[in-house]
Amino acid sequence: MVENFIQFVQENKILFVNFRFSGLFGEQKQISRIFDSIDKKTLTNGVTIDGSSIKGWNNIDNSDILLKPDLSQFFIEPYCKDKSITILCDVVDATEKSIYFAGNFVGSLNVGSGSAKNVLYVAEQIKSYF
User: What integer pLDDT is reported at residue 48 of this predicted model?
Assistant: First the structure.
C-alpha cells in the first residue's frame, strides 16, 4: 500500500503531504511536510508530534503522540496553489501505541485496547477546560 501511495504522489507531481487529524474537541488539525522529506518508514510508522501544544491533549511530561497515516483515506487538495495531498491520520499514544482517536473526525475514543487510564486522562483534560 505504501508503494502505491508513493507512486500516486509521484505520478501526480504532489509537492506537499498534509497529515490531518481530529483534535480533542473535534476540530481538524494538520501538519504539512514536503513530499521529498517523507520516506516509507514515516508512512508506515507515523509522524511524531508534541501533543502538549494541542489544547486539552497531553501534559508536557507525556506529550509525544503519533499521527499514523491511513493510506486508504487521502485526497488531493483542490484549492492549494502548490499541489498537496491530505492523508487522514489516527492519533496514537507514542509510548503505548494505543489509538486515542481514529482519523474519521468523529472524535470517538478507542477504549477497546483495555486502557481505562486513557479514558480517565482524557476526561480529566476535558474537565480542566470547563
Answer: 86
Residues comprising the chain, all counted: 130
DSSP run (H or E) holding 43: helix 40-45
Centroid of chain to Cα 45: 11
For strands 84-93 and 16-22, give the pairing. Answer: parallel
Residue of 2, 5, 84, 71 lying closest to 40 (CA atoms): 2
- Per-residue pLDDT of 101-115, as tens digits, reads 555 444 444 444 444
Q: pTM for the full model?
A: 0.71
CA distance 118 to 124: 10
What are the φ and ψ backbone dihedral angles of 73, each rounded to 5 degrees? -125, 90
Q: Would you state the torsion angle of the CA atoms of residues 59, 125, 64, 87, taken in this order, to the nearest 10 degrees?
A: -150
DSSP for 88-130, written as a single string: EEEEEETTT--EEE-TTSS--B--TTS-HHHHHHHHHHHHTT-
Half-sphere exposure (Cβ direction) of 116: Cα atoms closer than 13 Å: 0
